[in-house]
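Worked Example 4.2. Consider the chain below.
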Amino acid sequence: MSKAIVLNEKLEKSSEIELPKSFTEANSANLYLYVKSYLASLRANTAVTKSRGEVRGGGKKPWSQKGRGGARAGSNRSPIWVGGGVAHGPKNNRNYYQKVNKKQKRLALEYALSEKAQNGALFVVDSISVDSGKTKDAAKILKTLGVRDALIVKELIDEKSFYSFRNLKNAYLIEPNELNAYLVAAYHAVIIEKAVLENIVKEG
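Applying the procedure from the previous section yields the following structure tokens:
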């Protein structure tokens, strides 16, 4: 079974929370499909080239068909010419959308959280906030836990906590509605408030 580490106010291990059996039994294929779909949705789809019919010019035949000893040419906008069109180039009308149903998204999140727990990288706290609003105090949290980077899930982000974490390259502070399997998998550790984790378990 997967167990999340419960931290006290001093960020010291106080106990463990056992994740539901369904989290452990979730298939890794669901995480793969979700991550694939998530990354596909980020594609800008702006790459586009012109075919020989779309390139300006090239109406006149460059030289006569016969008599000069060279290869035949019908247009100087052929793909083999410099300045010509591109054969089979990318077009920006491609749809990269990949459907992942609601149940698969749920299973992907469960698997990602379970994997973090098995690696000892899922930390649960009653509340996480930086009242000083200073970045160095936020960085101290990660240093205390000994993690290189972390996803921090807070039930409601206050202004001071937002300012303290926003300049950290190795930390990302989010609210529960932004939580997904890709973000959980992308970070080395996850620090989550107890109420948020309980809601995730309850919804399952």
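DSSP finds seven helices and six strands in the chain. The two ends are 17 Å apart (CA to CA). Compare this with Example 4.1 before moving on.
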